[in-house]
Recover the amino acids of this structure.
């Protein structure tokens, strides 16, 4: 096996093991909680730019409509499903990606359920056969508004999840998938909410420790 291919495969293995992934959303409709503090233009400590908009505004603007009743049937269903979510545009080192982020609250703690919408560079570089094998999964992030101009986003670590599974401290439906044997949660959204509640009640001091954390500061609009 060529050295470059080995490095590439190892990188895939590392990236795929960073955050918890799920086939189903981590939230149910009754706990969705829209938070205005998330809206705006932000910059993280690595100088990546984050533009965060309300999903309802984006879908109306992209379809050049003034109100939801003017959308076609498919777009109207999408509007109703995600109207209390956000579109997150992430730009770093000339690469651009976009995500749907659905906010929800459990015991006064805010979380975000992320799913990818588009990765332009990735979409352009991957051939059609490769893309046929990809699915969009859900990831879970803890969201904290530190003040009016700073927010923290921490993705829950799959290392912690795998440790709990290996030690049989939790039971939740999952499968190991793909070349890297990534843990993919297959439990229903209702079961995932129960898991999050139980995890929050844990006395584990390192339960929020993660390798994927972003601290964002709001960008001054006058700059």
């Amino acid at each position: 096996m060529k050295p470059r291919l080995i490095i590439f495969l190892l990188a895939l293995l590392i990236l795929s093991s960073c955050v918890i992934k799920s086939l189903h959303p981590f939230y149910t409709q009754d706990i969705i909680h829209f938070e205005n503090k998330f809206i705006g233009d932000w910059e993280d400590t690595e100088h990546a730019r984050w533009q965060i908009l309300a999903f309802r505004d984006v879908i109306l603007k992209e379809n050049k409509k003034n109100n939801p009743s003017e959308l076609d049937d498919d777009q109207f269903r999408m509007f109703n499903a995600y109207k209390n979510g956000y579109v997150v545009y992430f730009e770093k080192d000339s690469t651009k990606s976009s995500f749907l982020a659905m906010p929800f609250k459990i015991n006064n703690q805010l979380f975000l359920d992320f799913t990818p919408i588009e990765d332009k560079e990735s979409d352009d570089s991957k051939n059609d056969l490769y893309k046929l094998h990809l699915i969009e999964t859900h990831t879970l992030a803890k969201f904290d508004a530190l003040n009016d101009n700073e927010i923290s986003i921490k993705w829950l670590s799959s290392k912690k999840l795998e440790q709990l599974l290996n030690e049989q401290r939790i039971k939740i439906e999952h499968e190991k998938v793909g070349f890297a044997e990534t843990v993919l949660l297959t439990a229903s959204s209702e079961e995932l909410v129960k898991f999050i509640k139980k995890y929050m009640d844990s006395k584990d001091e390192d339960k929020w420790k993660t390798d994927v954390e972003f601290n964002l500061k709001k960008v001054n609009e006058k700059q």
Observations:
- The radius of gyration is 18 Å.
- The chain has seven helices and eleven strands.
- The mean pLDDT is 87.
